Description:
This protein is α/β, with parallel strands linked by helices and 695 residues long. The protein has four domains: 21-126 and 235-312, Rossmann fold (3-Layer(aba) Sandwich); 142-215; 320-427 and 568-674, Rossmann fold; 435-541, no CATH class. β8, α11 and β9 form a beta-alpha-beta unit. The model is unreliable at 1-10 and 548-565 (pLDDT under 50).
Amino acid sequence: MTLNRKRSQSMVSPLDDLITREDIVEVAVSEALVFDDEDRISILQAMRSIDVQASPGSGKTTLVAAKLILLARKWPYKDRGICVLSHTNVAKDEIIERLVASRYPEAKRLLSYPHFIGTIQEFVGKYAAFPFLRSKGVEIRQVDTDTCVQMLYSKLTNTTRTYVDNKNNYSNILYDFKLKIIDGRLEIKVPTFPKGSISKSFKELRKSKLELICNGFFFFRDVYTFAELALVSSETSLSALQVRFPCVFLDEMQDTQKFQDDLLRKIFSVDDGRLIVQRFGDPDQAIFHGSGGEKPNESFNAKTTSDMDFVVNKSHRFDGSIAAKTKAFSLSSVPLETEQSEKKVAELLAHASKAGEFQHTLLIYEDETHKSVIGYFAELVSGQFSAEKKNSDRFRVKAVGAVGNEIDPTKDQLKIGHYWPSYDKSRLEVSFKPATLQEAVQYCRSSHAPDWAERYKLILDCVVRLLRFAGLTEENGRNHTSRSLRAYLKSKNQWERFRQTIYLLIGDAGQIEQGFWTDTCDKFKQIFDLDALPPEAKQFLAYSGEIELIEEVADVEESEPAAPTQPAGNSFFHPDGFMIELSTIHGVKGETHDATLVLETKNHCCDLEVMLPYLTGCLPSAEHPNSKLDEKPNASRRFKPNKIFMRQLYVAMSRPRHLLCLAVHSNRVTADQEATLHGLGWNIQKVVAPTGSEE
Length: 695
């Protein structure tokens, strides 16, 4: 642990020594939290700029939320606030939910002026780019890259469209528009014309992009450029932000791209003694590192553990057996450990069906049994978990792989779809956010709705929102969650009626008639004893006539049918009543599962084959330290391990609480490796096809 940044001794601030150990104990007891190690306590007390590397399952969100609650209770300013920034809406919502659920009413003050909790994108727009653009007479109409690309294409003449179409070998070049600031002036970089041109296509493309900007339509990336231009144009804007937010939290730092990090460090420098900038993340889990062709941040992700102020290496999620297997893929060689007590381990092992332990398994398949891997894994899960655990609504099992896009049968590939032919990655990419309950139901009835489980979850989340709007809380005053909802309804003998109502809502297709909607809303009101509804709840339940939803997922060709009795989609249903969801590794980042299967996939080369030497303990070595690994996979290199594979496997293998399984082809694991892995506690199983099945 290195503490290398301290506030100037000559500067006295009301924030100095604001949080005491007594405060931490009080909040921990009230919020039912445990902070009994010095690192976490020091992080909670720290009132200086720090960088924290938090390992999987170490309770990073809990730690950040607890610190915010501690600060909210003693915040000394009325017109200066705390700024909390995250990379995604999911992370932002997690923080907000923790504050809303807190027993301390002061925590909710952080949701309004003078504080800000939001994504980096939201912050940059609200406090820098949008005020600057409005001052220039530009009305902000929409920020969405996909929409802008469609609008750009629609503006082009046939000649320029032909030019663009001919250039679109692998992706749409219209996404490659860039805005640059050169000598304090904005320049439009037109794709395929790095040095400009006098051609008609260049002029038309540039003019079309400029018209979009003037009419208030922006790429997501454009907002950062205009924010930078705003700060370059006015030093007072920069000073105002630094005065307004003396305390800044940056979550998910490992996923922050270089252009985002560069801008944030201009506004909130970690070396500015007047500011407290605390950054949380885990470079070992930086699987979005450099995504979208953007350069990754280096101010956080390039740090070694000795450069970090704190490294939280103990996980609440899993026991020592999973920690020992997963830490082999820590790029920065963090000594991942479990923080579970013997009592907690015993409680977890009580969910095992027989031997009082879970057998982490390497599944070895052949060419003729690769489509049996998911079913074989399902039987392992069925045999290793107790009936009570499998019947729990919280029981979560996933099979994940790094490569999930559409299969090209003409190429040598290995993707999730090879194991489960009806897998469709596009189902994972829907980010529908309904404004009303009817909108959510209509979406679930549409042709491109996600799997049944996802539809059910969407409606359940909407009901939780309805209860918040209606002011219906748990007995302890906290807002209901989807987890607490079932217990509440069962206590009122309304659970079955509630489920039937949801099935009636989403089990049909087509538009919703007003009479049916009124009857359904009346049922919800009766189930939850909702009489006089406040305006927000009424609006959320209101009938809006027939809704035309924009399809967010493109049509895909019909894929090969799945195994008999299994519905098409990304889920495998077991007769015991549980479900296995299939997803990419990127799609499950931040999740916790009961059991996880990591499927071998191919990105230039097969990931598990290349990285197995780390699992057996042969790597890293003095000749091949982690710091010298190539960034990307390259099949032509003699030494093929790389940082991308390592980060992906670290994320994938750190998801489960109980059971971890890997699937690899028999040609890509040697007999010696099998023997070594067996000696390290892995259960080795050969996948066989179900009796009577045909591959």
